[in-house]
Specification:
The protein is mostly helical. 42% of the residues lie in helices and 6% in strands.
């Protein structure tokens, strides 16, 4: 089942209220309204790591305890390995005669380019494991 939003077909799993919406769009896991990061541009160096203390809409604390986001490092490792696996199988399918050096260069350069997004994505995944969405939180 899908809905139409701004003339685009979006599956229900990407709508507000789903974990994927909060994770992929880097939104507060409780209300899905505000952003998890202060700076919205991923590749801007100043303010890259900055997150608000709490959500401005629902007041949910975004750092549940000291060192909370250390667990996101494990998620980041998993997403990096998943990306390198996608690169490998893409090369196997589209360029079967690739060399190991070509794979390493392609994989590592693409991983370096994606690392700012993967950093934020891993934090978003990590906090979404612990905080559930509440539909009528802002009413």
């Amino acid at each position: 089942m899908c809905i139409t939003l701004e003339k685009k077909l979006i599956p229900d799993m990407f709508n507000k209220g789903s974990k994927l919406y909060s994770i992929l769009f880097l939104k507060c896991p409780k209300c899905h309204d505000s952003d998890l990061f202060i700076e919205k541009r991923i590749y801007k160096v100043a303010g890259y790591f900055d997150m608000p203390e709490s959500c401005p809409k629902c007041q949910q604390g975004l750092s549940l305890e000291p060192g909370f986001y250390y667990g996101a490092m494990y998620v980041s490792y998993a997403t990096s390995i998943a990306w390198l696996t996608v690169v490998y199988f893409s090369l196997v399918i589209f360029y079967p005669e690739f060399s190991l050096e070509f794979y390493l260069i392609t994989g590592l350069l693409s991983l370096i380019c994606l690392s700012p997004y993967l950093f934020r994505l891993s934090r978003s995944i990590w906090i979404n494991l612990f905080i559930q969405y509440e539909e009528n939180i802002n009413d």
